[in-house]
Automatic annotation (TrEMBL):
GO molecular function annotations of the record: hydroxyacylglutathione hydrolase activity; metal ion binding
Protein name as it appears in the record: hydroxyacylglutathione hydrolase
Keyword field: Hydrolase, Metal-binding, Zinc
All copies of domain Metallo-beta-lactamase, residue ranges: 3-70
Gene Ontology annotations of biological process type: methylglyoxal catabolic process to D-lactate via S-lactoyl-glutathione
Enzyme class, broadest EC rank: hydrolase
Known catalytic reactions: an S-(2-hydroxyacyl)glutathione + H2O = a 2-hydroxy carboxylate + glutathione + H(+)
Pfam families according to UniProt: HAGH_C, Lactamase_B
Residue stretches making up the Hydroxyacylglutathione hydrolase C-terminal domain: 71-156
């Protein structure tokens, strides 16, 4: 059938080995790879695969509208606050999300430029996040920091 748009298919293993996303500027349909404030669990893939997949998606244009598969934003932002409790962008977005969800309103889609500021899984090279992680363990590579975050989120 005809959608009237041309889409790029982006391989994004991590959540599952065969996971894919669809991009047609400005829309990214990312399934269970990227969520607002979070990312998908690792069912079949590895942390390394998911990290690389998120890097691909994060490289898309700033004005990309991220259309993810689930409304997990509030719980993801609670996790982000547990990691970076003094981050102004995370605090502001958490308050906004909390208000919207209290009214049973959706938080999606989100703008990728904003997502890069509030999603800890996209900030593994951010000095504030590195400092927090280094309080518990010294991890040199962004990919290792991602794996640490994903493991911590799995237990959150």
């Amino acid at each position: 059938f005809v959608l009237g748009h041309e889409f790029s298919v982006i391989a994004t293993p991590g959540h599952t080995l065969g996971h894919i996303c669809y991009f047609s500027k400005p829309y990214l349909f990312c399934g269970d790879t990227l969520f607002s404030g979070g990312c998908g669990r690792l069912f079949e893939g590895t942390a390394s695969q998911m990290y690389q997949s998120l890097k691909k998606l994060s490289a898309l244009p700033d004005d990309t509208l991220v259309c993810c598969a689930h409304e997990y934003t509030l719980s993801n932002m609670k996790f982000a606050l547990s990691i970076l409790p003094h981050d102004l962008s995370i605090n502001d977005y958490y308050r906004k999300v909390k208000e919207l969800r209290a009214k049973n309103q959706i938080t999606l889609p989100v703008i990728l430029k904003n997502e890069r500021q509030i999603n800890v899984f996209l900030r593994t090279e951010d000095i504030d996040l590195i400092n927090v992680i280094n309080e518990e363990t010294l991890l040199q590579q962004p990919e290792e920091r991602f794996a640490w975050l994903r493991s911590k989120k799995d237990r959150f």
